[in-house]
Task: structure prediction
Amino acid sequence: NLSLSVPSSPFLLRSAFHSLFLSHPLLVDRRGRISDSPKNPPILLSPQITTSIPMAEYTPLQDDEEQQNQQHPQDWNAEKHNRRPHDCQSPPPPSPLAVVAKFKSPRVASLDVFRGLCVFLMMLVDYGGSIFPTIAHAPWIGLHLADFVMPFFLFIAGVSLAIAYKRVGDRMDATKKVINRAAKLFLLGVFLQGGFLHGAKSLTYGVDIFRVRWMGILQRISIAYLVAALCEIWLPYQKWRKIDVVRSYSWQWCITFILCSIYLGLLYGLYVPDWEFNSGSTLLSTNSTNLYRVQCGLRGDLGPACNSAGMIDRYILGVNHLYVKPAYGNLKECNKSKGGVIPVDSPAWCHAPFDPEGILGSLTAAVTCIIGLQFGHILVLIQDHKERLYRWSMLSTFTFTAGVFLAFMGMPVNKSLYTVNYALLTSGSAGFIFCILYLLVDMWGYRWLLAGLEWMGVHSLSIFILLTSNLAIILLQGFYWRTPENNIIHQIIRCFVQQ
Result:
């Protein structure tokens, strides 16, 4: 005779019936407790059952259409990340390697689309700025379209950092990798923008070591990336029951406040004496006829001639290692001719070199990257689309409003100095645009519509190298009709720029 013992608990009977006949999935938490519904109280299983289920952590970063076609493994960090556990089939358990390989988190499409938008804007303002001056860099104070490109790159670099370092094992090893990447990016920037390459009109190369430009776009990105990455690796994370980016990452916000305080103290507090430079020789020489003298003797001046940012670069980097064609050459005071030459009778500071990616502005550039890092934290910790958009929009509104407030208080919006309100305004704008792209691409599924920008974002560094080194232009100039001058690049210059 075969005897069958029926469980006395109605829940156990229902669970056994579901498992034997309906194969209904049961919810199992990380403590080995099982329930057929989140509302029902769980019961404890035997240790053999809990150890047979692989512990695979999964972050659902793909869009909704892709998620419907996949089964989600058990999220064992549901309580830590405030997520709802996914359904998990208990019999038979898959292998851990199979789960990790199948449910590996893909790239967030809106990140690549945003990065591709930055590359597109860079191409637009570089080649269209001479045709349409309104989209080129503002000469000194103000915001033009070109002034958004650099902070947008820094913002999206910070967002990507939060995803890359959401789980750090060995901090020292991670620090070595960060320093190595930042150093490579810095050296690549020196090679591309240090004066080694002579442009599309000249196939020669080489630079005088006494006139190398040490700072540039990639150099600034590498410095901001290094600061933000070290903050993410080493600063402590405070856990709260409810996810709060401000309180959980309060130490990173403290670093942001410290960087802004140091920047403001140096910008307004340093005394700038009279200074001189020589634009006609390699080294500063008093025997040259092209010696210019700029009279300052001021403190807290934010003009092109006597600001402390330029003084710091001249003392640390050297006047011969700065950018020789600053944007303030387009000011009315400099009276630049149509050929791009500044008249001799213009003020002395019009002829002076100035680096818009200097040392002091790199402090606030790191602030932009850290703000982007907070957007990345929201992306990692929160899985609900609407909650992400709500928190991103609130953070964007706060930073943008703070920038507007500082502008009304009298602080100029200046890209060359990378003022604090410029960092806040552009970071808030980047946050709003990122919300729109996330809504279109990752929520509504219009990824195909922006596939070109996504491709540019995936290959952003390669495109930047091709454009900065003028390799793309040189290759296009190699295809001509009958004579080398009759190519597409010369035709564009003849039709638009010269007119």
